[in-house]
Amino acid sequence: MSPLRRSLIVVLLGTATLGALLKLPATAHEIVDPSVKRTPRDGTVRLYGAGGPDTAFKKVAQAFTAQTGIKVEITGGPEPTWSRKAQADADILWGTAEEDITALLETYSNFAFADVMPIYIRPAIIAVRKGNPKSIHGFDDLLKPGMKIVVTEGAGVANTSGTGTWEDVAGRTGSLDDVKRFRSNIVGFGKGSGPSFQMFVSKQADAWITWPDWPITHSDVAEIVELSEQRRIWRDVNVVVAPDADPASRRFLEFLSSGPGAEIMKTEGWVR
Question: Up-side HSE of residue 60: CA atoms within 13 Å toward CB?
Fold first, then answer.
């Protein structure tokens, strides 16, 4: 902020108000609750993160528990629904993109940035309604007048891997016109993949820029149209283990990253 602009704000608002404004976070994330007592070592490996990878993780956890007898609990969904509990007992956090895990670690400071491990990756895709009634075969079809598209954006209040994805895809070839035409067809901005999926259904949208796991796990209402290589972008899923995690946590991560784990993850679009 320039000195002149700062001076004008001080005059208009007063120094006390300015101080409060300057302390506001640049992006929204959950707030640490100092009353929470941390007790992670309870014999159960507990993972927390955004919805999406959780369905595949649960399949891996089931196989791991069957093999070892070690219990694993997977909690996925919007961060506000699990934040306080994760502060108390999370052994592992996962991020659905690098920006996602970076935002998470603003709150869960007992986890270290240096310990974050990318373990799988997946491409952005076009989700279309089951049966593909608009005969969408690629990105260029989304630029046609009258197309109804849903996209995911955190809007500064939600931590989601979808933030900026549609713009990355639309602007991939450096064409401003593509971005303009695509944007004119957007009918909904979902603050997270869950809300975006609900918009996709409720608005009877023709397309949604998202990740493969969503149409795979909701095949009754959606199917995948792949983006061409020149439009395709990739984001990883990553994990980080707490220093005070349950000792079995690393055993689970080894299994998650193993050949059998990779085969399970691949069923929902996660590759290595």
Answer: 27
Are 158 and 191 contacting, i.e. CB atoms less than 8 angstroms apart?
Answer: yes
Strand partners, 224: 127
For residue range 176-220, list pLDDT tens digits in order: 999 999 999 999 999 999 999 999 999 999 999 999 999 999 999
Q: Which two tokens stand for residue 119?
A: 């373990």
Global pTM value: 0.85
- Residues pairing with 163 in the sheet: none
List CB contacts of 53: < 8 A, sequence separation 6 or more: 76, 94, 96, 120, 213, 237, 268, 270
Q: How far is CA 247 from the centre of its chain?
A: 27
For 45, list phi and psi in degrees, rounded to 5. Answer: -85, 120
The encoded tokens of residue 228 equal 């061409």
Per the CB < 8 A criterion, the answer to whether 46 and 89 are in contact is yes
Q: Which token pair is 245?
A: 């995690």
Q: How far is CA 19 from CA 24, 48, 52, in A?
A: 9, 34, 39
Instruction: Report how far residue 37's alpha carbon sits from residue 62's, in angstroms, rounded to the nearest whole number.
Output: 29
Q: Look at residue 232 and give its three-state secondary structure.
A: coil
Type of residue numbered 169:
V
User: What count of other Cβ atoms lies within 10 Å of the Cβ of residue 119?
Assistant: 18
Cα end-to-end span (Å), the chain: 43
Domains of the chain: 44-121+236-266 (3.40.190.10), 125-232 (3.40.190.10)
In eight-state DSSP terms, residue 164 is: T
List the structure tokens of 37.
């007592």
